[in-house]
Amino acid sequence: MTREQYILATQQNNLPRTENAQLYPVGIYGWRKRCLYFFVLLLLVTMIVNLAMTIWILKVMNFTVDSPLVLQSDRNVTVNARNHMGQLTGQLTIGADAVEAQCKRFEVRASEDGRVLFSADEDEITIGAEKLKVTGTEGAVFGHSVETPHIRAEPSQDLRLESPTRSLIMEAPRGVQVSAAAGDFKATCRKELHLQSTEGEIFLNAETIKLGNLPTGSFSSSSPSSSSSRQTVYELCVCPNGKLYLSPAGVGSTCQSSSNICLWS
Q1: Membrane-spanning residues where (predicted)?
Q2: What's the per-residue H, E or C state across 92-126?
Q3: Which residues contact 219 (CB under 8 A, 6 or more apart)?
Q4: Helix (H, G, I), strand (E, B) or coil at 149
Q5: Non-local CB neighbours of 121 within 8 Å, separated by 6+ positions
Q6: For 34-93, what is each residue's pLDDT tens digit?
Q7: Where along the chain do its domains lie?
Q8: pTM summary value
Q9: Distance from chain centroid for Cα 170
Q10: Pairing state between β 106-109 and 116-120
Q11: Contact criterion met (CB below 8 Å) for 78 and 92
Q12: Residues 6+ apart with CB under 8 A from 109
């Protein structure tokens, strides 16, 4: 017998021996076990009911992955935004007659690049779209001034500036230029057309200048050649008040002879 075997055998012989040792069962038994099973079953039933209610709500509200979110109401649909203190910072109300938004700044952005298409606040309204198109028959009505560097009609369309009941005024400190590169320029009025230059001059530059419907004066002359039926040449005369009139041309000036037409003006 080796030394290790001898020491092991000696230790086993020296251990106290207990007779009739009592054994205690380990675990949950009796009513505790039944209560545990009952609570587990109750938890399982609650989970099943919650899952069923969730599926039912998703089905009723039409919450699906591929379909948009639809909010329906018999009256108004109101979406509120509040800060950390519970104060109302923004509100969107969709009603039967109008859609109202109450906030400090309202913006509409493009879906592609995120640029601002429309923004409004207390100070100004900004439209960032490339083109603003008004298709109403009455057009756009502005209560005050409109500032723009360029007014242009659509291709193949006429541009018309009109004031149906009042005056149309075009002013510029450095000049107003109206040009028609490939057409005519017409100015029509019911009463009087005034061309006035306070410090400069009025310059008419054209190959032919025509003044139609000018009044024609008459004077008595013994010469049969001066008969108005055969008159083809006239003299342009000016009244002291600036009125122009025609006088049948003669050997000399006939404006003094037919100046009685100035008395009619």
Answers
A1: 36-58
A2: EEECCCCEEEECCCEEEECCCCCCEEEEECCCCEE
A3: 247, 248, 254, 257, 258
A4: coil
A5: 104, 105, 106
A6: 898 999 999 999 999 999 999 888 888 776 667 677 788 888 899 999 999 989 999 999
A7: 30-62, 75-128, 233-264
A8: 0.42
A9: 26
A10: antiparallel
A11: yes
A12: 115, 116, 117
